[in-house]
Each structure stands twice: as C-alpha cells, then as structure tokens.
Amino acid sequence: MHSLKNDRYLRALLRQPVDVTPVWMMRQAGRYLPEYKATRAQAGDFMSLCKNAELACEVTLQPLRRYDLDAAILFSDILTIPDAMGLGLYFEQGEGPKFSNPITCMADIQNLPAPDPEQELQYVMNAVRTIRKNLQGEVPLIGFSGSPWTLATYMIEGGSSKAFTKIKKMAFSEPQALHLLLDKLADSVILYLNAQIAAGAQSVMVFDTWGGVLSPRDYQDFSLQYMHKIVDGLTRENEGRKIPVTLFTKNAGMWLESIAATGCDGVGLDWTIDIDNAKARVGDKVALQGNMDPSMLYASPERIEQEVKHILAGFGEGPGHVFNLGHGIHLDVPPENAKVFVDAVHKYSAQYHKG
C-alpha cells in the first residue's frame, strides 16, 4: 500500500475518524492565481495547458504551495470526452467552450466513437501519472469527469446555455436518441475514470453542473440514472485502498436521498441547502462535501471565518465532512482570502473531532 502523509480527505469520504475536517476548493488551480496565469501564458492556451503533462502538473501543484489543502485535483476540463469524440472543442475569448460539430440528430449519436482513454485521451492519463509522481504522497489526487447529462448539454447546445432548449427538445421529442447518447457517454466516463484510477487517481468525482435544470422525474431519467450506472462501473479499490466516489449536482438539495442511494461515497452540496439539513437526511449513508458560497471569499477575513464556523457547527461532530465551496472559486477572488478560508477550516474544526 502506498503511504500517504495526509489521507484525511479519503478518510472523511469513507466516514472514518479524522483529526480535523479536510478542505479543498473546486477550481483551486485556476485563474485567481497569478502563477496560474503565467503558466497558461507559457502553454499558449487552455487546451494546450491541459495537454502538456508537465504544465498541467505544475498548475495542479501551485495551490498546494500556497495553501494547506488536503487534496490535489487533476487539472483538466470536463469536455475532454466530447472533444475526443470529434466534436471540435474550442474556446472563444470570454465566451467559454464551444463545439464546431454539435450533435443534432440520432445519426450523429450513432456515429460517435468511444474514445480510448490511453489513445485519444492519453494526455489526461499522462497528466495523472505526472501529478501523482510529483505529489510524493503528500496528499491524495482527485480525478474527475463531467456527468453524461452535463456533457450532453454542451454537445447538443454547442456550448454554454441558459435555457437548454435544444437538449430538452431532444429529451421530450426524441428521448430514445438522447438516452442512446447518455448511455454512450456513461460507458465512456466509466472507461475514462477507471483509466484515471489505474494511472494513480485516489478518488474520483463526477460533476453534474446542469442536472439542476431538470424536473425531479427528468433528473432521475436523464441524469441520475446514468451517474448510478457510472458508480456501478467504477473500480472501487486500487493499491490496497478504497477509491471513494463523489457525485455533485448543482441545485440538487431536494434530491439528496436519491443521489445517496446510488452507492456513491460522497455527495457534493452547493450553498442553497443548509448542511445540517443535508446531514439529517443522508449523513448516515454518505459523506458530504461543501458548501460555502464561493462569493463569501470576497468578504473580510472575519466574515469568512464566521461562515466557516457556521458551516462546521451545522455539520457538527463526527467524520463524514469534506469542506469545500458550493461551486468553483471565482476568478477575481484575492488569493489571500482563500488562505483565510483554508486555515479557518483546520483551526475551527478540531473541536468536532475529539471523539
């Protein structure tokens, strides 16, 4: 078994005792850090940064040099799978991701290839291997993927969307086409995450950014069912350790019980639900990750500490909490405020782990 100097993140996800509540931040390697901007400029553009294992490793490690974080997360993008399927991913300045060949019909879906993680997506596995080696057992490495529903939204809308009319049109007028796409994506995500685990990821997370735009029944049919399939297909042990899996749907506080019933280890929470409410409902089944509003990082150090204390008190005693933001850190947050946040979690959480 490979020894980890700090495994409290993995222990917390498995609801095992820890000394303090572990903390990491979604998008912790990113645009709010000046050193990230410098490395990205060196790479030329965002996808070139993702595809260069050494530079992807460098930006993964940058936040760990600044902050006492309890996990590293692979530097990559959720849209690597659709890109590898030939949809032509590109980024417009200030506009986010776009696809030059979006999915429009059943024939497009039938013709989609299943990308081989060690061929078309080998650059991701190379990044995982490089990061894992360079971490030298300091903290665990998290691998990740987008959820089938969230990937499908970008693939059908052709980019970001506000109303999701194209994918919902397919969902309600040609459901068999959308289900075929989601099933293909679930199969690809299983291969992709299992390859990340084989390459050295010690925990994996599925990001379902857009599941919350669905009705409760449609969420079950078009999003959760496919995440459940992924959970069932994942390698759950490697190198003599359990590989915890976390599911995160934004705006899904009302569906926590269904998410917890998939067999995942952790459920990510955004800030629109109180963590005490979430713990009362599912805390004996899964660990909870979250859930400070990322905009709180604009506040004064005193206000940030107050919020951290409030969330820690809401979760209360015992293991099973991974502290995080309720979504990714904003790009104009002062880096020193992120330090206040991380330090406050460790400082004020020890009292809840005396047991």
Automatic annotation (TrEMBL):
The EC number(s) this enzyme carries: 4.1.1.37
Organism: Paraglaciecola polaris LMG 21857
GO cellular component, one term: cytosol
Subunit structure: Homodimer.
Gene this protein is translated from: hemE
Annotated site location: Transition state stabilizer: D77
Protein's name in the database: Uroporphyrinogen decarboxylase
Pfam families found in the cross-reference section: URO-D
Residues holding substrate: R27, Q28, A29, G30, R31, D77, Y154, T209, H327
